[in-house]
Amino acid sequence: PTIRFQLAHVNTQIDAACDNLFVGELLCLGITGQDCTSVHVVQNGDVCLTIANEADITVNTLLANNPNVNSGCTNLIVNEVRR
User: Fold this and answer.
1) Signal peptide: which range, if any (predicted)?
2) What pLDDT is attached to residue 5?
């Protein structure tokens, strides 16, 4: 099934500096202000640019939809779900 929910309600665990993303997390790949209809499970070696490119979105959109991911994308946690 398609996962649909607002980023702000589901990603409250991510800090403003984006220092606490974990591999396996799902990242929102939607558009700011809209329900997330696509998700990404963080994998070893993932960086924001790669995730954004695969989703055909900008890194800025990825970061806007995942405010707990830091701008350097250094806090991704493997297997965590991001919206």
Assistant:
1) none
2) 37
Alpha-carbon separation of residue 22 from 39, 47, 68 (angstroms): 14, 11, 11
d(CA 1, CA 71): 30
**Separation CA 7–CA 82 (nearest Å):** 9
How many whole angstroms separate alpha carbon 33 and alpha carbon 47? 23
Could you tell me if 43 and 54 are in contact, meaning their C-beta atoms sit under 8 angstroms apart?
A: no
Higher-pLDDT residue of 60, 36: 60
**Domain boundary assignment for the chain:** 7-82
Reported as a single tens digit per residue, the pLDDT across 23-45 is 777 766 655 555 566 778 888 88
Euclidean distance between CA atoms 79 and 83, whole angstroms: 13
Residues 42, 77: contact at Cβ < 8 Å? yes
Q: How far apart are CA 40 and CA 51, in angstroms?
A: 8
